[in-house]
Amino acid sequence: MAIQISTAIAIYFVIWWIALFLTLPFGVRSQHEDGVGAPGTDPGAPILTRMKSKLIWTTIISAIIYGLAMVAYHAGYLSIERLSKLMGMPF
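The line above is the sequence of DUF1467 family protein; the predicted structure tokens follow.
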């Protein structure tokens, strides 16, 4: 049950991308909420996005999820046979 490096990178990238979209809305304040903003800009535009911290948190969260998934895979919980049986499909 070995995973090729390209498959592992692809799985991690998908998990990282989903985690990024989960972390994007946290901590964002719009110009309308703070009552400041440049003329001609959208009131819903963010003032400070804090992207560096969000990228760090995304990497941490996705590494934890990926690690748990690999432990479950190597323990046999995420095998094709087990997942097809759970979904009621013959293997």
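Note on the example: DSSP finds four helices and two strands in the chain. The first helix runs from residue 5 to 23.
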